[in-house]
User: Which sequence fits this backbone?
């Protein structure tokens, strides 16, 4: 840490999720906690250049934020007394705050766990869950989140205000759910994180590039969740899945922002450090013997990552994993991927036969483009062209449209 | 904290039930209400007569306008309610999930606005 403002920025960006979690527990209110944190940041910017950066910045910030919150509550209380409205609630809060000792590591851990379950409570809309999680645990600012979701700042701010109001007024509990609710609630938390990741991952070019930091943010949220729920194999599976997907970030986009499919990617450009971390995590999760969809998807992605050439891909094993996934999460999209794996391992006709049995994907552009790819490989160029055209009618993402046009030209010229 | 649980269900479903099925539904409501009362969480609750008996009233420019039927026509109709005491939304959701109609209709949970206490 070279300069003091940088130290302030680091402390707040990296640690604000933890600190906020503690403050929310003590103040019982998201807004009051955010205000206190803002106050503490202003004080840090003022004091640190003079006094030097404290030994333990998060502890310093927590203490100052707490003190600032007490000041505010006292001011509000004075106002309350002046206007003769009940001040009991405010004063009881002060007693609790005065007795508050330095936060221990385990208390911080528990606070963050409570916070993530509150942010991802199913009584909030998924959009609100995502925004709250990024704001509180992810430490992103409101403009940063708005930019990433291509939304006007006031829209996003309003979404957060409404969510925080509902937490307070409908009394959404700030706690770790009881055991019988836990599996479902953990699933909801992981869904939010994966949603954040995918929002960033689908972005490949141009204006969309502002969304890329969402991937990094989702990965660091994934790490936080693994840290606070170390016995949850699906959490580890999700982190592995995100790391493995993200390892291809540089290889999957061409110089003009065009999408490069897995088969055509320059594998030298895959992030090997991330791949090996992802592989270790997949193994660790699978050894817990409680397999789930994220672990299986991570295992599939790991198999792709292990092949240094497309031809070395273990498609047979991938097909088996998709079959397992289809049993856990029956879905036509999984069946489609399974059919592709079958085509690669047992022959294109086998894959096409499996695809013909999928009836629900007539309006899904990736179904037609996958089918078109198989037809192209087996030399059925005119059938492939029809399938590419159908995919083009349905595709919306510009990079995907460009890819499909390129393929369509290839098969049209071949005849 | 007080919550109002509004019970929405398709009236036609209940109309089409056999007498045995209707008996079973009433029995389930009896059991649920008893459990709610025993826990001390029951503050009130009633079943409503069918939507065909509903009347909507509006006052415009000092004139009382009376309209036959509910304010909004919806697929599911308000058929009854419980007022419950619960410590938080999770507890309210747990009670709402036990209301027999939750299995076929929907329960809307509304926290009661408390005036003059807390915030």
Assistant:
């Amino acid at each position: 840490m070279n300069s003091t403002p940088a130290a302030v920025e680091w402390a707040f960006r990296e640690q604000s999720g933890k600190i906020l979690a503690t403050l929310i527990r003590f103040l019982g209110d998201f807004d009051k906690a955010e205000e206190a944190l803002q106050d503490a940041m202003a004080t840090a910017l003022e004091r640190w250049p003079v006094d030097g950066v404290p030994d333990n910045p998060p502890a310093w910030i927590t203490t100052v934020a707490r003190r600032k919150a007490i000041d505010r509550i006292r001011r509000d209380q004075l106002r309350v007394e002046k206007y003769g409205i009940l001040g009991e609630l405010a004063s009881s809060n002060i007693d609790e705050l005065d007795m508050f000792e330095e936060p221990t590591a385990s208390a911080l851990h528990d606070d963050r766990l409570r916070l993530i379950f509150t942010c991802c409570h199913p009584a909030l809309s998924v959009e609100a869950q995502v925004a709250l999680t990024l704001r509180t645990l992810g430490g992103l600012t409101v403009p940063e989140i708005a930019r990433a979701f291509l939304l006007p700042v006031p829209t996003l701010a309003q979404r957060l205000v409404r969510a925080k109001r509902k937490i307070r007024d409908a009394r959404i509990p700030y706690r770790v759910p009881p055991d019988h609710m836990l599996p479902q609630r953990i699933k909801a938390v992981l869904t939010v994180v994966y949603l954040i990741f995918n929002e960033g991952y689908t972005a490949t070019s141009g204006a969309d590039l502002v969304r890329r930091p969402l991937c990094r943010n989702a990965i660091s949220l994934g790490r936080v969740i693994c840290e606070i729920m170390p016995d949850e194999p699906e959490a580890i599976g999700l982190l592995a899945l995100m790391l493995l997907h993200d390892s291809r970030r540089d290889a999957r986009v061409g110089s003009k922002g065009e999408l490069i499919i897995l088969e055509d990617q320059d594998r030298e450009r895959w992030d090997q450090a991330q791949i090996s971390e992802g592989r270790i995590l997949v193994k660790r999760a699978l050894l817990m013997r409680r397999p789930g969809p994220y672990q299986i998807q991570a295992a599939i992605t790991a198999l792709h990552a292990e092949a240094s050439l497309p031809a070395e891909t273990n498609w047979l094993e991938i097909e088996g994993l998709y079959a397992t996934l289809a049993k856990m999460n029956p879905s036509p999209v999984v069946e489609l991927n399974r059919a592709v794996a079958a085509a690669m391992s047992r022959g294109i006709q086998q894959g096409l036969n499996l695809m013909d049995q999928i009836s629900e994907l007539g309006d899904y552009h990736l179904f037609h483009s996958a089918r078109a790819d198989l037809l192209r490989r087996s030399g059925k160029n005119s059938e492939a062209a029809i399938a590419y055209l159908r995919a083009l009618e349905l595709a919306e993402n510009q990079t995907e449209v460009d890819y499909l046009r390129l393929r369509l030209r290839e098969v049209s010229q071949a005849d | 904290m007080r919550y109002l649980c509004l019970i929405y269900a398709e009236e036609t479903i209940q109309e089409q039930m056999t007498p045995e099925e209707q008996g079973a539904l009433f029995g389930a409501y009896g059991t649920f209400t008893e459990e709610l009362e025993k826990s001390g969480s029951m503050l009130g609750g009633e079943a409503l007569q069918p939507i065909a008996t509903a009347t909507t009233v509006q006052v415009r420019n000092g004139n009382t306008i009376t309209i036959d039927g509910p304010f909004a026509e919806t697929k599911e109709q308000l058929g009854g309610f419980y007022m419950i005491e619960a410590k938080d939304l999770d507890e309210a959701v747990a009670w709402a999930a036990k209301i027999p109609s939750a299995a076929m209709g929907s329960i809307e949970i509304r926290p009661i606005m408390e005036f003059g206490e807390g915030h």
